[in-house]
Amino acid sequence: MDINDLVRENIKNLKPYSTARDEFKGQASIFLDANENSYGSPLPVNYNRYPDPLQLDLKDAISKIKGVPIENTFLGNGSDEAIDLMFRAFCNPGKDNVIVLPPTYGMYEVSANINDVEIRKVPLLPNFQLDMEKIAETIDKNTKLIFICSPNNPTGNSINRTDIETILANFNGIVVVDEAYINYAQQKTFIQELTEYANLVVLQTFSKAWGLAALRLGMAFSSQKVIDVLNKIKPPYNINQATQDLAFEALKNIDQVNAWIKASVAERDRLSIALNDLNIVTKVYPSDANFILVEVNDPSKIYTNLVEEGIIVRDRSKVTLCEGCLRITVGTEEENEKLLRALNPQTP
Ligand SMILES: Cc1ncc(COP(=O)(O)O)c(C=O)c1O
């Protein structure tokens, strides 16, 4: 499969914006080429210069951790930006379609709707795995993208690896594997498969395990052709300098992040067992993520009671296949204790 055949014609023909920093990359003592404020910024740190449009220093640091070359790495203003750009790059509005596998992360559908791209839903099976037959039936010549979220939000489970591989090998479009929660999973990342499949895009984010949701920094790893298209169409300075600097610093603290991952996984497993013991809980779904999907006997009443206690969870009870369920993010040990006490006032 040639990725170029999937790219929209107008994107193929697009002449991208050329920034001042694209046109002159060398060292100089006086920069008078970008209409910046040459005096500085009214802050202790200067942000008067536009940031590196391709974030090469940050990508280099990420590459050392992930083992993915820079030319296979795209950085977005959150993975949400990468999701949106996938539509803009590959889907002709009003003509092409994409497949999503609900219940799943809501932005795939929102981005499709923003871009006026038909969305075809193939619900997960009751065990929250892929309905491979239905997916095969749903694909047609205008199907450009399939979004697979693994571990899946809001169900929490990982998707069977062999099913994802089957789709990668047989689908003549792009498979987006969203690994926002991969750090909490038993399952291996698909990053290792990038050399195997030109049509694989792996999304990861700094918003979860890395604890940097407010910085808005997401990663897309893929074959160079896909990455080149994303870079061609992204807003020129999509990752601001403060985010680049702070993420660069954060990458030096990987030990802290790994300790938090370990703690979150231990708390998730402890919380799952404790929730299972509560009378109000009818089912606790196994989780490979930093949240737990919990079926309860009266979701709206329990949700409201928790709000009164100052504890906010996500009510997913109206979502197909998640009927009666709340999605609970794993908190710190202390937060989880408070949650359990609020759910079971008799707890000593
Ligand atoms: C599966 C999944 N993908 C992506 C995102 C968004 O990530 P980001 O903060 O990098 O935009 C989320 C956020 O909740 C998510 O659950």
UniProtKB/TrEMBL annotation:
Kindly indicate whether the keyword Ion transport belongs to this entry: no
UniProt keyword terms in alphabetical order: Amino-acid biosynthesis, Aminotransferase, Histidine biosynthesis, Pyridoxal phosphate, Transferase
- Reaction catalyzed: L-histidinol phosphate + 2-oxoglutarate = 3-(imidazol-4-yl)-2-oxopropyl phosphate + L-glutamate
Name the InterPro entries for this protein: Aminotrans_II_pyridoxalP_BS, Aminotransferase_I/II_large, HisP_aminotrans, PyrdxlP-dep_Trfase, PyrdxlP-dep_Trfase_major, PyrdxlP-dep_Trfase_small
Annotated pathway: Lipid metabolism; Amino-acid biosynthesis; L-histidine biosynthesis; L-histidine from 5-phospho-alpha-D-ribose 1-diphosphate: step 7/9
Q: What does the record give as EC number?
A: 2.6.1.9
Q: Entry's Gene3D superfamilies?
A: Aspartate Aminotransferase, domain 1, Type I PLP-dependent aspartate aminotransferase-like (Major domain)
- Pfam families the record matches: Aminotran_1_2 (PF00155)
Molecular-function annotations in GO? histidinol-phosphate transaminase activity; pyridoxal phosphate binding
One GO term of the biological process aspect: L-histidine biosynthetic process
Q: Which domain of life is it from?
A: Bacteria
Q: Which cofactor does it need?
A: pyridoxal 5'-phosphate
N6-(pyridoxal phosphate)lysine modifications at: 208
Where is the Aminotransferase class I/classII large domain positioned along the sequence?
46-343
Q: How is this protein organized at the quaternary level?
A: Homodimer.
Family from the record: Belongs to the class-II pyridoxal-phosphate-dependent aminotransferase family. Histidinol-phosphate aminotransferase subfamily.
Known HAMAP family for this protein?
HisC_aminotrans_2
Please report the name of this protein according to its UniProt entry: Histidinol-phosphate aminotransferase
Q: What is the organism of origin for this protein? A: Pedobacter changchengzhani
Q: What is the lineage of its organism?
A: Bacteria, Pseudomonadati, Bacteroidota, Sphingobacteriia, Sphingobacteriales
